[in-house]
User: Fold this.
Amino acid sequence: MSKSLLYLIKLSVIPIIALIAGKLIGVFLAGQFLGVSVVWSFSSPASFLTPSVPGADAVNVTTFANLFMYGCLAVGMSIILIQSSFFHDSHIDVNAVSKLANYNLVHLIKSSYQLYHWGFIWTVYLLLGNIVILIDAVTAKTDYWVLIVTGIFSFCSIMILVKDVYNEIDTAKKMSISKI
Assistant:
């Protein structure tokens, strides 16, 4: 296997935990906050992933759980977008590097290799989160506004990341022209 593929697999651990654990914790928290009886079955590992919720409260619990799950994914993607916008080694300001060095935070600066691999993985899991929400919306388990809000966030996040890639390409072009 190539080095990049192994690196992508390694990077997938945190987003998959955010996706699955976010949904399960969201169901648990929805039960707590909404006062709904959520029954967990521990007979097998697969049954743990499908808690029972009263039919009248299923839409509210699923909507809350989807928002919590997507929130976990959105936090991860937001961290990547902040790093790519402000802590990207190819276009970080010298003054910012100096300030980070004063506080011993130079490790926050990331290379294109790291940022774009992380960005790709988080984008894939954002889209998987949207697919989960789409399936829940189509089967009337969640409200459609959740799908719209998460879809808009995903689209904007992807566009910000693509803009950073174009900025990186422009920076590389300028550097190659100045060397000639």
Q: What stands out?
A: DSSP finds seven helices and no strands in the chain. The CA atoms of residues 24 and 49 lie 7 Å apart. The radius of gyration is 20 Å. The helical segments are 3-11, 13-34, 45-48, 58-86, 94-102, 112-138, 144-179.
